[in-house]
Amino acid sequence: MADQIKPAGGDRSQLEYYADLLEEAQRIKGISLWKDAWRRLKKNRPAMVSMVFLILLSLLALLTPLLPLQSPSEQNLDDGQFLGPSLAAATLPLSKELADHDTAVEALIVQRNEVAPGPEQQQLDREIAALQQESPLSQYWNNPGPITRSLIRLRATLFGDWCFPSLCGTDNLGRDVLSRLFWGARVSLVVGIVATLVSLLIGVSYGATAGYLGGRVDAIMMRIVDVIYSVPFIFVVIFLITILSEESIRESLNDIGIDQVMIFYVVIGAIYWLTMARVVRGQVISLKNEQFVEAARVVGASPRRIIFRHLVPNVMGIVIIYLTLTIPAVMRFEAFLSFLGLGVSPPDVSWGLLVNEGLQDITPVKIYWWTVTFSGLSLALTLFALSFLGDGMRDALDPRMKNR
Question: In principle, which of 73, 147, 336, 371 could form an S-S bond with 358, CB 3.0–4.6 Å?
Answer without folding.
Answer: 371
